[in-house]
Specification:
Layout: E1 5-6, E2 15-16, H1 17-22, H2 35-48, E3 55-60, E4 64-67, H3 75-88, H4 96-134, H5 136-152
Parallel strand pairs: 2-3
Antiparallel strand pairs: 1-4, 3-4
Length: about 160
């Protein structure tokens, strides 16, 4: 026997399992919530997500739908979706401002280091220019080494 329910009498959300199956199951969204909103979301989800009859395997005229039931072909998919939701909706409290500030500090440190490397390579290149008149056989070898270092650094220090 097929159960049929009226959408107007459900008193909550009804999830279309065919549409739900078409959505990407991989983690792809970050949601920032206050503690209050997370508390409400968790409480709402406890009563809604696990209720099998809120998942529709078909819709009928007259505001009716056929809910997923125990033993249906959709039951395993719905249970997997419910379990994934339970694993994905959890508190990962962090101070975003501090994280971003630490990231900026790290980038500034890296920029300063690259600037120092560039200055050192530029000074070495100037030294090579002086060697080319006093020891031309060394100058070519040293310049090739500096070019290789520049390539390894990803062209950060462009030598004149």
């Amino acid at each position: 026997m097929t159960t049929i329910r009226n959408l107007a009498r459900v008193g909550g959300a009804v999830h279309d399992v065919e549409y739900l199956q078409s959505l990407d199951a991989d983690d792809c969204h970050v949601i920032v919530l206050s503690e209050r909103s997370l508390y409400i979301l968790n409480n709402l989800s406890l009563g809604e997500v696990g209720y099998l009859a809120r998942y529709a395997k078909g819709f009928l005229p007259g505001n009716l739908f056929v809910p997923v039931e125990i033993g249906d072909e959709w039951e395993e998919f719905v249970r997997d979706t419910q379990n994934a939701f339970g694993l994905e909706i959890y508190d990962m409290t962090c101070d975003i401002t501090t994280v971003l500030e630490a990231l900026v500090t790290e980038m500034q440190t890296m920029n300063a280091t690259m600037t120092e490397i560039s200055a050192t390579l530029t000074a070495m290149d100037a030294t090579i220019g002086g060697l080319s008149t006093t020891a031309p056989e060394w100058a070519d070898d040293v310049e090739e080494i500096l070019d290789a270092v520049n390539v390894i650094l990803g062209g950060v220090a462009i030598l004149p």
